[in-house]
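Renewal narrative, Specific Aim 1. Our central claim is that a sequence can be written position by position from structural information alone. The example that follows is taken directly from our test logs and has not been curated for this report. It begins with the structure tokens describing the chain, in the order in which they were read.
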């Protein structure tokens, strides 16, 4: 999720009323090789995230499931996206947020300018920061989660080595399903919610629900998107679905159906992932709801935050058929 260096922070649509997501600017990789430009080392890297942002949420989940919490530190921004973009806050000011104890920044934009003084694009999270080189490694969530997936395997605890959410034998299938889910679901909710023309909204909202029907069908016969194994594809989709009923259904007008009442297989799948050890702790519904409803004043000028948190994901308990990863 992003803020812009120039112009209003909520002006993301083009003249045709369509929302167009920015291509990430920093695209380097942490690698296992000691001689790599960014080698995997304990304590060297830092993640800047927002609990509200589904793209940043992906990185928190993989960091948790791969046992990287002691190796990669984290700063969490304030849920409110203000005129200067993402801001840091103390836990006393905003429970769940943190100050930036790596760069001492007040706003995430300062981190970008430290890495690239002439930077002029949007200030997005997540950001993977190299504390040795004092620069941004990557601000592309899809690539950060792949770094976290394998690059640190030689230095993590033995129990986490070999856990692979992007295994060789499933890469082609994962890439294929990621492609259409990203376009129509992950980004589809934004293309619906930020549309400023009726035709753009209807086009993207209908495509979104066509894909949800397709996913519901897949999960009618599969435990996870690609069978009995939890993969990157599931984690990428989960962060959108967990926000769907409490935010996207109302705030982004994605209101043809709801997860809680209309998609039993998606709901079962969501509960199963949410109930995996460590996942629940990455879901901060207060940050999620307050961010969207209070930051996007062009959509919700009153900043009133609805009460509904979506379906109960703690109950009933859904037990995996086997360890899913």
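The sequence written for that structure reads:
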């Amino acid at each position: 999720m992003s803020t812009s260096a120039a112009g209003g922070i909520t002006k993301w649509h083009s003249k045709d009323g369509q929302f167009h997501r920015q291509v990430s600017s920093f695209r380097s990789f942490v690698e296992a090789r000691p001689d790599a430009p960014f080698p995997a080392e304990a304590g060297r890297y830092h993640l800047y995230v927002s609990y509200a942002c589904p793209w940043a949420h992906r990185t928190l989940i993989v960091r948790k499931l791969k046992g990287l919490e002691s190796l990669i530190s984290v700063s969490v921004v304030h849920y409110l996206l203000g005129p200067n973009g993402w801001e840091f806050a103390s836990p006393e000011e905003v429970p769940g947020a943190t100050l930036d104890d790596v760069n001492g920044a007040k706003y995430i934009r300062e981190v970008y300018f430290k890495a690239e003084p002439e930077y002029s694009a949007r200030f997005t999270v997540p950001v993977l920061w190299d504390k040795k080189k004092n620069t941004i490694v990557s601000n592309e969530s899809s690539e950060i989660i792949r770094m976290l997936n394998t690059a640190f395997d030689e230095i993590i605890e033995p129990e986490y080595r070999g856990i692979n959410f992007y295994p060789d034998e499933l890469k082609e299938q994962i890439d294929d399903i990621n492609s259409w889910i990203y376009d129509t679901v992950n980004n589809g909710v934004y293309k619906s919610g930020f549309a400023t023309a009726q035709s753009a909204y209807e086009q993207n909202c209908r495509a979104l629900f066509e894909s949800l029907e397709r996913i519901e069908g897949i999960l009618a016969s599969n435990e996870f998107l690609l069978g009995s194994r939890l993969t990157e594809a599931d984690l990428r989709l989960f962060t959108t679905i967990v926000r769907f009923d409490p935010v996207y259904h109302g705030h982004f007008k994605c209101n043809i159906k709801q997860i809680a009442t209309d998609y039993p297989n998606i709901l079962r799948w969501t509960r199963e992932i949410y109930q995996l050890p460590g996942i629940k702790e990455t879901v901060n519904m207060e940050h999620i709801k307050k961010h969207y409803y209070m930051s996007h004043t062009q959509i919700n000028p009153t900043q009133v935050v609805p009460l509904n948190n979506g379906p109960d994901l703690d109950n009933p308990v859904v037990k995996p058929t086997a360890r899913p990863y």
